[in-house]
């Protein structure tokens, strides 16, 4: 067990972005190295890697959604949708509301990391032109995308893992999680409006001179039509992973441009990152370390389902920021059968691990994308981000979890 934990600790430090002297590894290469170490030291066998450790369905679903998002990006959809919301804004506060809600809505349909990557440059352009402080709007992109992505199995990678491991259908997942995600998104907006009430005083907002971004209408029609068909198949109960890949394959065939352009937009490094994590976490689970971790918190989980879920949700928020949400979801998957209502536990895990991403700047990949894309205009310390992330996460998780428990 201790060997597995040592390899996990090494991998975890790299996943958190820690620079280890003499070890020039980043997050993806750290996860891959951790997987190799698990096999090299006999914690996991090669056969187990192929047959048990790697959740191929999750990787296929993520790849399919990335390709669909790539074609939407190629068509100019993300920038067009953001421009529509921004153009309708008349005041700084309405602009903040528009950015938050449009990022949440797009992330509910698509992968939140992609939404942040595509929307952030346009938001920065607008706030610069309108002479507005960038920080409230950058936080709105990140917080809104994280909260909105909790609504569906395809909103973020940890939801994809939950959906594929739990067996929840797209409809079951979305009907339970969408109201909670909406409630959390409204909390995000409310908290940001309060915290930035002085910086966003009411005044006319002149952004009408910002030209609409170009759109490839033919490609957009094909991409939106394909995405609609995929969504219908999801709701009808079709296999999530292969439905997404079927939509991706269709667009590769009818996109009307070289498929390589879309494939180059796929984050292949992210797929490697998840594959490596799957192996590392499998080794931790096989060693019994995951059971030992659960045993440490199990004395607190006594009572009815509501109390169980309150403790589990709180632990998820804390541990998702300690371990990072995707590794923690993989660990916590070993605990779900121990709860009195495993189906509810899966949903609480999806919701709270996602909302936990708003707590710290490294709590979500979406946060990192937004503030890295912003460059010097997005410079913010860990402590200052926490000042905003703490009330957003605490209130959002509380309200969202209550909505989930009441409406499930």
Q: Report the helical percentage.
A: over 70%
> What is the β-strand count?
0
Secondary-structure content class: mainly alpha
Q: Unreliable segments (pLDDT under 50, ≥5 consecutive)?
A: none
Instruction: Report strand %.
Output: under 5%
Based on CA atoms alone, the radius of gyration comes out at 21 Å
Mean pLDDT: 86
Number of helices: 20
Count of domain modules: 1
Distance between the termini: 38 Å
Order of helices and strands: HHHHHHHHHHHHHHHHHHHH
Tell me about the largest β-sheet: none
**Outline type:** globular
Notable traits:
408 residues, globular, 0% strand
Describe what this molecule looks like in 3D.
- With 408 residues, the protein is mainly alpha-helical.
- Helix content is 74%, strand content 0%.
- It contains 20 helices and no strands.
- The mean pLDDT is 86.
Summarize the structure.
The protein has 408 residues and is mostly helical. The protein contains 20 helices and no strands. It has one domain (57-407).
Topology:
Blueprint: H1 2-15, H2 27-40, H3 46-53, H4 56-75, H5 77-88, H6 92-109, H7 112-129, H8 134-149, H9 157-166, H10 170-195, H11 217-235, H12 240-254, H13 259-263, H14 268-287, H15 289-297, H16 305-323, H17 325-332, H18 342-355, H19 365-374, H20 382-407
Helix pairs in contact: 1-2, 1-14, 2-14, 4-9, 4-11, 4-12, 4-14, 5-6, 5-7, 6-7, 6-8, 6-10, 7-8, 7-19, 8-10, 8-19, 9-17, 9-18, 10-18, 10-20, 11-12, 14-17, 16-17, 16-18, 17-18, 18-20
